[in-house]
């Protein structure tokens, strides 16, 4: 931390700050609390990159909603209304009607209309490649980025078949590094619960997937200048939308209760310009 403060004091006060948001289902609501706390410290975000829930939060904030506005909208949405069962398909549910919800929230459906540049991460399941979306239509890439394998049918877009970006990259720092962003704030809302008893095939599969994602994410976390990864979020299930407000506060307090990180944000947040 001392070296970081030294760098900031010596010429990086006008640097661009990039925010990288992980996937994690309902846990991604935590990102909104983190963003609210950062904004209160005067931090100006110049670019956002996200996967799955992180991509959705990133799109809403980039569109111009405040964190509190997004939370309020989430609390009013009946998500089951937008899901349909898939019969004999490569997933339990279809996301077709989710597009209607996105159009209500993001009517411009365009990366170019966003107030903050955004990168959305998805996995091309056929080619086995990560894809970063930064221009053109916005909503289909968002649907692709949050298409949890096995739960939702893959999303067909631009003649490719996509699933959740977390399969290959749950903390997409690479697009922001390539853009020359000097300062990265990483927010990871998907840590594994290593204390959860292994009692069924489901828990074995869940733990294995979480560990695989965590292993890849850890390398990227090391490259972030500031990281918010509160262990408290572990107690929430990835489908626990009903506890949205509590998850939001978990993210908010993870910033406000980090004095060494707040020192940097307090001293230099108001000086940072795009």
TrEMBL record:
Q: Which residues does the entry assign to the active site, renumbered to this chain?
A: 52, 164
Has the keyword Lipid metabolism been applied to this entry?
yes
PNPLA domain ranges (all copies): 19-177
- Look up keyword Lyase and say if it applies: no
PROSITE patterns assigned to the protein according to its UniProt record, in alphabetical order: PNPLA
Q: Where is this motif: GXGXXG?
A: 23-28
**Assigned keywords, A-Z:** Hydrolase, Lipid degradation, Lipid metabolism
| Motif window: DGA/G | 164-166
Q: Which PANTHER family does the record cross-reference, listed alphabetically?
A: NEUROPATHY TARGET ESTERASE SWS, NEUROPATHY TARGET ESTERASE/SWISS CHEESE D.MELANOGASTER
- Name-wise, this protein is Patatin
